[in-house]
């Protein structure tokens, strides 16, 4: 069997290679470290953790990333097995000893008879003779390869920085204060004239809000990142510093919006949120990309009327990050539509974080191996964490029609907002529950129902139950 080629031996590439070899297909990993480094990696080991040593929450019942851990364990993940074997105490989180973790991943791959690790930089798209390949070169993809990807996909399709605005769970927005309306009730293609959630501010609140943005704690760019401020992408606090009225004439302009709850009162400024996923469970804060520290974002953005109790699926950020416009470029099995046989995996596809990157590597590896073996491709159900994350990357995404040319796809961690809602008849109240069933109790029962559904569907997808029943 001819090998599958994996470019990049990071979190995604290592997991992809493991899945391919585990399916009985030879695989070649091409990893440049050893020949050329990146700005963030410090060693030559595969699957190096460049910053924190945490895989975040390991709670599979109440947390979406914990659920993803559990699904990856079911799918024979090398990254999870090595993480579990080299964990260090971290409460409910799964944290690992970074050196022994990466050494273990490297050793397991190098010892596998179907795996070859080559230390070399791949500086163009995979050659035609590699009929099956996966590009998993991560947020710091070497410039020559990034240039080749850009040439293949188009200039707008590859970003070198993310500009992330916070995303709010819709059901935590107070719609007694906020209202639905598009500016000037404009109906865009596929729109209704009520496409935005609007949060009004009076003059005093607006001034206090601008001051809070200026005073709030910020994170700094790393020296090698440069300062990527470009048109239309200024952090909200930088706009605030330019003058107290700047935001009111930018993302917070009140024109063309009438408070549905109190039409006589004209708002001094309005924060708008736009639907972010096809399910309508997530809304992003338009124009609110920011370098404010995460805790500061929560504190300051909850000052916005209507967002007092907001829960955030993602907080804002601005980082050096190479990633492609996957919803447009990739098919549902992570394959580049313009070059069948070439897949992308990991953070370059627009997921975020070690675990998510490895999970997308796991899927890309399985898809490529199935194709090589002539087996039917089966994608994970949308109800699983695998499927929810894959859905964020390859589809189900709202592309903004009111800002022509502006890309709305931004990287994201796995979170409950990406999962389809529960069936309306799902029983949430536990047997014997006393008192009023609402608020926190209801929210955590919902999470447990989503995670139970996900694990059951994941097991079914992997065929584990069938195999176990046959044994
Ligand atoms: P990587 O793990 O980066 O792997 C890509 C691999 O491809 C690298 O080994 C690289 O050397 C190789 N490569 C690149 N170009 C080529 C080429 N042309 N030829 C051959 N090989 C090539 N995530 C977290 O979860 N927690 C954090 O704390 C965190 N901190 C971060 C801090 C920084 C500064 C950065 C840049 C990222 C951070 N991330 C963090 C994100 C993290 O990098 C990713 O989640 C994860 O490493 C992505 O996995 P990946 O496999 O897609 O990319």
Describe the structure.
Helix 2 (64-74) runs parallel beside helix 12 and helix 3 (78-85) packs across helix 4 (98-111). Helix content is 31%, strand content 15%. It contains 13 helices and 16 strands. Residues 7-13, 30-33, 38, 40-41, 50-52, 121-122, 136-142, 145, 346-348, 353-354, 357 line the site of flavin-adenine dinucleotide (FAD).
Report mean pLDDT, rounded to a whole number. Answer: 91
Instruction: Find the structural class using helix and strand composition.
Output: alpha/beta
Binned strand content = 5-15%
The dominant shape is: globular
Write the H/E string, N to C.
Answer: EHEEHHEEHEEHEEEEHHEEHEEHEHHHH
Approximate helicity band: 25-40%
Unreliable stretches: 398-407
Distance between the termini: 30 Å
- Describe the largest sheet: 6 strands, antiparallel
Radius of gyration using CA atoms only: 23 Å
Reading side by side through the largest sheet, how are the strands ordered? 10-11-12-13-9-14
Give the bound compounds: flavin-adenine dinucleotide
**Oligomeric assembly:** single chain
How many strand segments?
16
What's the helix count?
A: 13
């Amino acid at each position: 069997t001819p090998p599958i080629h994996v470019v990049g031996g990071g979190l995604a590439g290592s997991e992809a290679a493991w899945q391919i070899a585990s399916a009985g297909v030879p695989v070649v990993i091409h990893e440049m470290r050893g020949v050329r480094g990146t700005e963030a990696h410090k060693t030559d080991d595969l699957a190096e953790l460049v910053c924190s040593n945490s895989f975040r929450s390991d709670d599979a019942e109440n947390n979406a990333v914990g659920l993803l851990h559990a699904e990856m364990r079911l799918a024979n993940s090398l990254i999870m097995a090595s993480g579990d074997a080299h964990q260090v105490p971290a409460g409910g989180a799964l944290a690992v000893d970074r050196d022994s973790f990466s050494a273990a991943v490297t050793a397991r791959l190098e010892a596998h008879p179907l795996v070859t690790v080559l230390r070399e930089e791949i500086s163009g798209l995979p050659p035609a003779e590699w009929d099956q390949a996966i590009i998993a070169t991560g947020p710091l993809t070497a410039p020559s390869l990034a240039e080749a990807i850009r040439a293949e996909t188009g200039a707008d399709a590859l970003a070198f920085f993310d500009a992330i605005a916070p995303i709010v769970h819709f059901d935590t927005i107070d719609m007694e204060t906020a209202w639905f309306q598009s500016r000037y009730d404009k109906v865009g293609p596929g729109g209704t004239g009520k496409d935005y959630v609007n949060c009004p501010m009076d003059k005093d609140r607006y001034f206090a809000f601008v001051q809070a943005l200026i005073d709030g704690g910020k994170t700094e760019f790393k020296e090698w990142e440069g300062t990527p401020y470009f048109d239309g992408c200024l952090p909200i606090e930088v706009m605030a510093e330019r003058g107290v009225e700047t935001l009111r004439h930018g993302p917070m302009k009140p024109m063309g919006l009438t408070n549905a709850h109190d039409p006589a009162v004209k708002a001094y400024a309005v924060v708008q949120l736009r639907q972010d996923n096809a399910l309508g469970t997530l809304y992003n804060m338009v124009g609110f990309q920011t370098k404010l520290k995460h805790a500061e974002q929560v504190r300051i953005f909850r000052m916005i009327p209507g967002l007092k109790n907001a829960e955030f699926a993602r907080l804002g950020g601005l980082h050096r990050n190479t990633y492609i416009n996957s919803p447009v470029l990739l098919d549902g099995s992570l394959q580049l539509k313009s070059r069948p046989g070439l897949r992308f995996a990991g953070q370059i596809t627009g997921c975020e974080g070690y675990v998510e990157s490895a999970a997308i590597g796991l899927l890309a590896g399985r898809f490529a191996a199935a194709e090589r073996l002539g087996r039917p491709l089966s994608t994970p159900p949308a109800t699983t964490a695998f499927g929810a994350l894959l859905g964020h990357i390859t589809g189900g995404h709202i592309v903004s029609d009111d800002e022509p040319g502006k890309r709305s796809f931004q990287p994201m961690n796995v979170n409950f907002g990406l999962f389809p809602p529960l069936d309306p008849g799902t029983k949430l109240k536990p047997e014997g529950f006393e008192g009023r069933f609402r608020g926190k109790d209801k929210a955590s029962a919902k999470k447990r129902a989503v995670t139970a559904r996900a694990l059951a569907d994941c097991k079914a997808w992997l065929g584990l139950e069938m195999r176990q029943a046959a044994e």
